[in-house]
Amino acid sequence: VDTANLLTGHYDIGYDEYIEGGQDADSNLQIGQQIRSSAQVFSVSADGDPHFVVHLPRLGENICFTIDGEPNDVLRLVDDPVRGIIVDGHLMWAPSKVGFEDHSRTYFDQLIFSMEMEGAGPWVVTVSLTSIVLEGEDRVMLPVDKPGSVKRRDVKIQVDDQLRAWVMLRRDLQFLVLFHHYQHPTYLQLSHLGIYIASGQGLSPRTKGLLGQFQHAEIDIVRSKDATGSSEANGQEKATTGELRWRGEKIPVLLQTKSLKDTVQKRHPGNCWLVIKAQVERLVNGTYRDYVVGHN
After folding, report:
1. Which of 48, 87, 114, 119 has the fewest Cβ atoms within 10 angstroms?
2. What DSSP designation does 240 have?
3. What is the pTM of this model?
4. DSSP 106-168
5. With b meaning 16 or more CB within 10 Å and e meaning fewer, what string describes 59-87?
6. More confident position, 63 or 187
């Protein structure tokens, strides 16, 4: 693997800027009589502008990649035709980094969860920066600045004591939504949402979408034999590279340390195999426009 090509020219700088000053939490969540384990690892997430993290439980590894969105686009995050579940995310504009003005930045400011209900058509949960609205048998609104909950059939929504939102669409399918606000924001930091699949067993193997396609993925990572983290002649540690193998693709990846949010505990430094932007279309098996709702 050509390490130089992986490290340069792909605008993967500043992966973690949006973290500073945002809400985070340590405590566990109780939904009804269920206690969410603080050790439970989220399977897939999209947060920041937006950064995607995929956990590979079989390998104990993580994959990271970034997508440059366009303001006001709606991205298809989950699409399960078997369960009738769709999750979309609306992108808002964010200022570009100094020196990278030609690269757009966006955040999620609205998440829409839709689920087909037997004999009732689709139920829709809309999460914004100010409220959560459930439209089904009736219309219920929850504020997001104080704890509260609502339950209709198998659909449960709770804003916990840490002001995180948990959206349970069925017993084995639960999402976590984080509300990122900043007391003293820099020009890069705007209030935004992050989405995490906290429990995704309820998604069928036919699930698609930028997040959903990874829920049941059988992905392998093969480390390069000539890149094992040993020191180079100049004393610097040699970058660890590898190859991601999935759906017949062999995609070069680079092992980096990132600030990961993969449980209800605080963010922590962790290893992540970075897929550079030039290779992301191969990873997600499509172009950015293929995931924009209403484009096709």
Report:
1. 119
2. P
3. 0.85
4. EEEEEEEEEEEETTTEEEEEEEESSEEEEESSSEEEEESSS-EEEEETTEEEEE-TTS-EEEE
5. eebbbbbbbebeeebbbbbbbbeebebbb
6. 63
